[in-house]
Design brief:
Distance between the termini: 57 Å
Low-confidence stretches: 1-21
Strand content: under 5%
Mean pLDDT: 82
Radius of gyration: 27 Å
Number of helices: 11
Order of helices and strands: HHHHHHHHHHH
Helix content: over 70%
Length: 279
């Protein structure tokens, strides 16, 4: 009887049922946060359009949103905008893809091998101080006035932005992870593929986003090189006739295309770096 009494005394009391709704799940909280941010994005766009319209009505030499929309409908209807968007997209995507494809392996080699870093880094830092637009005269002399110099200038802008980010990602890998992998018997190739590459992926994707912005920023100047189609060409041609609605259509088109491509890269980043803590 004493043993039974002792057991009852030492046993934990039952947990009373909790009142109220269950705690929200992390997935539900994340969805609500995305919806809230999306609503704020829409509100920001509407406020920006309202401010633009107010400035135009107040007398600033700006076309109103309806005028820009009407010009966009005209350019879409006669096929001009579609051809310009396609030409610019081909140039940006080609230059950006080539720049990223070259930057990632070179950045890895610079970060992993000190000898490669010593040979390549001075040239990377040297060309980083030269704006890609300053290369246009040299590109015309060496490559002519076809598509090659346009794509090369965009390639250079994307490459320089991405290679530094990749290099920083490799050199910033936690040495404790590398040493732990060596202790467990991993060779250099396994460490590189299983430790360095995953840890560097966030840096690479950030570099790609910066490189994409640089590629679009260089597009207008690249299309100075004897282009016959493209958003940059259309804007420069409209400048000669003081055609502000067409210039605004080109600016908005570049902004929308760049934003869509950036969102795609951001979605890719979230998929590949889901193991990271996020705020």
């Amino acid at each position: 009887m004493a043993v039974l009494t002792r057991r009852r005394a030492t046993s934990a009391p039952p947990v009373p049922p909790q009142d109220g709704p269950p705690a929200p799940s992390a997935g539900g909280s994340g969805r609500r946060r995305r919806v809230r941010l999306g609503g704020l994005n829409v509100l920001s766009v509407l406020l920006g359009i309202a401010a633009w319209w107010a400035l135009a009505v107040a007398g600033l030499k700006l076309p109103t949103p309806p005028e820009v929309l009407s010009q966009a409908v005209t350019l879409i209807g006669n096929g001009t905008l579609g051809k310009d968007v396609l030409a610019s997209l081909v140039r940006v995507v080609t230059g950006f893809a080539l720049g990223t494809a070259a930057a990632v392996p070179i950045g890895f080699l610079m970060g992993w091998y000190a000898a490669v870093r010593g040979l390549v880094e001075p040239w990377i830092q040297f060309f980083r101080t030269i704006p890609p637009l300053a290369i246009i005269p040299l590109a015309i002399v060496l490559m002519g006035i076809g598509e090659a110099p346009k794509i090369f200038v965009i390639f250079l802008a994307a490459f320089l932005a991405c290679v530094i980010s990749t290099f920083q990602g490799v050199v910033n890998v936690d040495k404790t992870l590398i040493n732990a992998a060596r202790v467990l018997g991993a060779n250099d190739l396994t460490i590189f593929l299983r430790v360095v590459v995953p840890a560097s992926t966030p840096f690479i994707l950030v570099g790609m986003r910066v490189g994409l912005g640089s590629a679009w920023a260089t597009l207008v100047a690249a299309e100075l090189i004897a282009a016959q189609q493209g958003l940059g060409y259309r804007m420069q041609n409209a400048q000669l006739y003081y055609d502000l609605p067409t210039i605004f259509v080109g600016l908005i088109s570049i902004g929308i295309l760049g934003l869509v491509m950036d969102r795609l890269l951001l979605m890719t980043e979230r998929k590949l770096t889901g193991w990271q803590e996020r705020r």
